[in-house]
Each structure stands twice: as structure tokens, then as C-alpha cells.
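User: Um, what's this?
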Amino acid sequence: MRFTPKISAQKLYLAAVVAASGLLIGYMVWRESVAEAGPRPLSLKEIPFDGAQAYEYLKQICDLGPRVSGSKGMQAQQKLLLEHFGEFGADATLQPFKVRHPRDGSAVPMANLIARWRPELTDRILLCAHYDTRPFPDRDRVDPQGVFLGANDGGSGVALLMELARHIPELRGDVGVDFVLFDGEELVYGENDEYFLGSTYFARDYVANPPHGAYRWAVLLDMVADADLKIPQELNSLRWPNTRPLVESIWTTAKKLGVREFIARRGPDLRDDHLPLHDIAKLPACDIIDFDYPAWHTRGDTPERCSALSLAKVGWVIHEWLKAEVAKPRRR
């Protein structure tokens, strides 16, 4: 036999109030904890940018081997990319120049690769990356003279732009888009060798021979495929008055999409290809980069250290930001 006590209506009401209050408090605590944790992680299938295909492009690039300036690997990459961007409707050309080799003084043939969509438009946006690899993995503790593939540092920005290219013809608006891949970002054998050869040449030519159109913004993509992706706001990009609005608009886009790897806080002060674009060409240029990458300048910078999901997240943010920018009225 089970004993069931009698309960008054007043006690039942009080019990219901207490229970409801407990549920409300519990919900508020849960909501606060979720807000502190940020949006939930995104999966590859949820993102409308094909990170898996971008990752395949990354592996395809690395299969060419090292892409040091002037090397056969670089020449093979140039052929691949000219054909690729041409397939998606770009006017793709090389911008050749020569530099002196930092060790033996010989002439090194270099070329920036420029892909332009709707070149007749005068209001334009520039997306760029470097596509050369460092001669050696100089930070490798075991073999600093070994083979450097440069999957993340040299390949990731290129792979992302290869996938983004298929979306450019779909953009609606009166803004043209250019991709520029810089050669000679780090044809560097020692501490005193010069960096940013391709972006410096491009910036100087932009000033000396003004193009048909002017750039509204310039966005540099460098080291964006780290499997442990974290992208703070690079300090130069953030503190330059003409570039800060660009940084804020991209990170705002990431927040709206729930891509929490774009972290709205100050990152390191980095020297990269955006410096010549800003200092010489006077362009508002920002650097999207995850510099916290343990395999940087080592033999470990291989596709296995990179992530299709990371490429998808960065590509999605850039594509959505670009769609919004292209749709804006022409700047006067």
C-alpha cells in the first residue's frame, strides 16, 4: 500500500510558482553561458562556400612542390592559375619583372599574376595573396635546409581565391574585382634580404601608371588554412585611419555569420604585403592572417596541418563581405 497525502489548492499554486521560477532562472543562466561561449561551432556542410574544393586546390598546388620565385614549380603554378582563372571568366595575365638574386646577384625572372573581372569598371576591389614559397624551412630545428612546401604560408590564400573565382561572375553591382597574386614575398635567404618584392613592384606601378580603375579596398589573405584557426585584427590594418572601416566591416560580417574564428581584438603588428599597398600605393589595405601557426617556416607546413573547414569559414566571410560591397552604390 502506498500513502498519498492530500494537498491544498494554495499549496499547489505555490509549488507551481516555485517550479516556474526555477525554470526561468535556469533558462537565464543557460542563455548567459551560451552568450559567453559565443555561437556554436559551424560544420563544413553548413557553410555555403566549398571548403573541401578549396582544400583540394591547396593539395594540387602543393603537389607542384616548392614554388620559389623563378623556379620550375612557380612556372607550373603560373600556368595552372592562368588557365583556372580564365575558366571562370577573368582576364588573367602576368605582370613580369626581374630582381637580383640576394645571394649570387643573378637575374631572377618574377611575375605577379593579375586576374580581372569586368575590367571596364572604374570602381574596383582588390583581393590578393602571395604565391611564392620561401626557399628553405629556416625555422625547422632538424633540417633548416630541407624542402619547404608552404601549404599554409604561400598556398592557402591562393587556394581560397581559386574557389572564390567561381563566385565572382555571379556578383551583382557596378564594382569590378581583381585578384593579384604577388611573387617574391619572401625570396629570403638571410636576415638582411628584402621582402615583398612583388607587392612593392605592383604598388609602384600602380602609382607610376595609374590604371583605368581605382581600388576602393585591398584585402590580403595570408595563412588562412590553419586547422586551429584564430584571426585577430592585425594591428597596422586596425590603426590606419583609412583601413580601420574595412577591418570593422569584415569582422562585423564574420560576427553576423557566426564565424567566431574572426576575433575582434588587436592582433600582432605584422610586416606583410599590405604594407607596400598602403604606404606606396596609398590604398586602404588590411591583412587577414592567422600568425599563430607552429609549423610556420618549417617542413611541417604541409596540407595535413591545414583544414577545409578553415578555408570554408574564411572564404564564406570574404564572399559575403564582397557581395555586400559590390552591391553598394558607386563611391564618389
Notes: Residues 47 and 312 are 7 Å apart (CA to CA).
